[in-house]
Amino acid sequence: MKEGQFTERTTELDRNGRAAYRVTGDTDDTSTRIIRGIDDIVGEDTDRQTWLYDKVDPDALDAIFKQKHDGTSRTEGKVVFNARGCEIVVQADGDIIIYAPADDSSE
């Protein structure tokens, strides 16, 4: 697995033998960024385009991390879930870290 168009390898965040990748860019919704990041890391799943819906409600995930009603950014909280063998950590500040599947033998 290698750094891709939507991810950058972040070795200082590796844990439990799993490679960490930071999802780059911030113009898309949270759920879109996660899908693109996972596709970068494990490849596109053309047979099953709805894998994210099986794990979390993408609309709810997007709503959680949008700005508050007064226009200020969220500063606390995170959501952690697993999908396609990866662990996904979404921070309130918009930072998304994806841990590659445990069997990843890269770097």
Task: Compose a concise summary of this entry.
The chain has two helices and five strands. The protein is an alpha+beta fold and 107 residues long. The protein has one domain.
Protein architecture, described:
- The chain is of the alpha+beta class and 107 residues long.
- The chain has one domain.
- It is built from 2 helices and 5 strands, in the order ββααβββ.
- It has a 5-stranded antiparallel sheet, covered by helices on one side.
- A hairpin with a 2-residue loop joins strand 3 and strand 4.
- It is globular and about 45 Å long.
- The N and C termini lie close together (9 Å).
- The model has no long low-confidence stretch (mean pLDDT 86).
Total DSSP helices: 2
**Secondary-structure-derived class:** alpha+beta
* Poorly predicted parts: none
Widest sheet, order of strands = 1-2-5-4-3
